[in-house]
Amino acid sequence: MSDFLKDLFPTEDSIPASARLPHFIEQREYLINGELRTWQGDLNPVLSPVFLKKGDHYEQKTIGSTPLLTSTEALQALDAAVVAYDLGHGAWPRMTVTERIEHVERFLVKMKEQRTTVVNLLMWEIGKAQKDSEKEFDRTCDYIDDTINALKELDHNSAKFVQEQGIMGQVRRVPLGVALCMGPFNYPLNETFTTLFPALIMGNTVVFKPAKYGVLLIRPLLEAFRDSFPKGVINIIYGRGRETVGALMETGKINVFAFIGTNKGANDLKKLHPKSHRLKAILGLDAKNPAIVLPDADLDNAVTECLTGTLSFNGQRCTALKILFVHRSILDAFIKKLCDGITRLKPGMPWDPGVGLTPLPEPGRVDYLKSLVDDAIALGARVMNSDGGTVVRTFFYPAVLYPVNEKMKIYSEEQFGPVIPIVPFENDEEPVRYVLNSHFGQQLSLFGKDSKRIGHYIDAFANQVGRINLNTQCQRGPDSFPFNGRKDSAEGTLSIADALRVFSIRTLVAAKGTDENKQLIGNILKNRESAFLSTDYIF
Fold first, then answer.
1. Which pLDDT score, from 0 to 100, does residue 538 have?
2. CA-to-CA dists, residue 240 to 189, 306, 483, angstroms
3. Same topology for domains 71-284 and 289-482, yes or no?
4. Is CATH 3.40.309.10 what the domain over 289-482 is classified as, yes or no?
5. What is d(CA 424, CA 329) in angstroms, rounded to the nearest whole number?
6. DSSP secondary structure string for all residues of 38-54
7. Spans of the chain, pLDDT less than 70
8. For the chain, counts of helices (H) and of strands (E)
9. Vertex 520 angle, CA 517 and 521, to 5°
10. Which helix (DSSP H) or strand (DSSP E) does residue 99 occupy?
11. Is the bond preceding residue 478 a cis peptide, omega within 30 degrees?
12. CB-based contact 81:180 (threshold 8 Å)
């Protein structure tokens, strides 16, 4: 073990008071039909990626436990959502947009009161640095606010009648039904809520199952959910996915499936639905986003962006740069600067000031990353940075691998961790072929200055990925931009406005523009005899 990693994990008394969890969190509560129920069955222990030094040995910190619900409780949650939706006749789907917004705003106020608790749980559960945990919480609150504003704008545009070819009509968006929402462990709050709240605010009822890791942080929000929404509108379950989620899909009563995870997991679950044509899926899946660094790239900028793109939150992001194609003419300089940049990243605990590298939460991930490095070395690659690939319990020090080729697993598999494969190239068609043949198609990054060359690459990739980043890392934001992917990387498009559309469908009321029909519609509007047909304007 390298000297600078020997004291990576802390003793209990060295943890700052502000970052300590007050006690072991034994969670037995779950939310069904507006009621916080208490589970008396088995619990699933929640292990932190943080180990604590105790004398001459280390012990992994167990911070709590969560309910291991069964298919019985999952189906009870589904029944509550089905009743609340009531084939579109429930109070929630028929509620005015203004009323639904008021419920979401009520939740947001209560959510903000739990900021410190949720941030600490993000640090302890998934090892996310305090600064990034705070950013995730605040960005999620901003996303909910922006969703409310986007819905107001959408409703403004719908509060009018159009006339075409003698037909007058009004088009409004209505909910799809019962939604099943499942988020990822790497952004268990933000990416989960970017589907959950658009689904809710558009009038769908929801069964929500938190991520496998990063699950305890939902507990402080359970009462806010219960108190902010009508019974059955939001139901929150826990347990093993194969026992709970499988049972939900098999009923055929799920209308919308929002899932962020692997394409294999999504495929397996979708196959369980007996009427797949009636299931709308919004999926954020795997990615193997490449960066292509051309010979005329601003080297300092390219290295800075690739460093952040590969190692932000230890590379555990679907939008992370997962493979770097670097032109041979600048390889030596690029690799040296990249390795120098890694030495300036501070390893430590999530609450340490300025920390850049933290332990990994997913059991088995460290062993998997080591196997990728060993495989690449066996096939001719070298670890280019000092201490690259060093393992200290749940901590994996970044490894820069070069030269990487198509025979190595790291060339095509998504590592989802701090391993940086570098592929040398001379011919522009080499990285093009990689993207064309890849199973994934989320994003890529291009680094260079030659407009003609960059333009050629843009045209080559426009029909392959959802976003092409010029001289910057891959990323999701701003949230007003579309977030999607092709091939095995996604289904459906998310952004603030797009999310409202994917969780709803347009319905049209139309009539010939006769005097009698104009009078009929005028009376409905004037007397407020329809919640759907309305020209009210939300401020």
1. 84
2. 19, 36, 29
3. no
4. yes
5. 9
6. E--S-EEEEEEEEEEEE
7. 1
8. 17, 27
9. 90
10. helix 97-112
11. yes
12. no
Burial class (CB in 10 A: 0-12, 13-18, 19+), 87: exposed
pTM for the structure as a whole: 0.96
C-alpha span between 192 and 213 (Å, rounded): 12
Fold assignment, 71-284: Aldehyde Dehydrogenase; Chain A, domain 1 (3.40.605)
Instruction: For residue 49, say if its preceding peptide bond is cis, omega within 30 degrees of 0.
Output: no
In eight-state DSSP terms, residue 318 is: T
Residue 66 φ then ψ, to 5°: -130, 160
Instruction: Break the chain into its structural domains and give their ranges.
Output: 71-284, 289-482
**Positions of E strands within 150-236:** 162-164, 167-175, 178-182, 205-209, 234-236
Q: What is the pLDDT of residue 536?
A: 87
Which tokens go with 530? 């329809």
Specify the pLDDT at position 22.
87
**360, 127 contact by CB (below 8 A):** yes
Q: By the 8 A CB rule, do 199 and 492 touch? A: no
Separation CA 307–CA 318 (nearest Å) = 15
What is the model's pLDDT at position 3?
Answer: 78
- Distance (Å, whole) CA 32 – CA 231: 8
What residue has token string 């025979």? 407
The answer for 359, left when phi > 0, alpha when psi is -120 to 50, beta otherwise, is beta
Q: Which two tokens stand for residue 128?
A: 């996310």
Helix (H) / strand (E) element for 117: namely: helix 115-126
Question: CA geometry: angle at 29 spanning 130 and 362, to 5°?
Answer: 40
Length of the chain: 539
Name the one residue in this structure whose structure tokens are 């072991």.
Answer: 24
Reduced DSSP (H G I as helix, E B as strand, rest coil) percent helix, strand, coil of the chain, to 5 = 40, 25, 35
Provide the pLDDT for residue 418.
Answer: 98
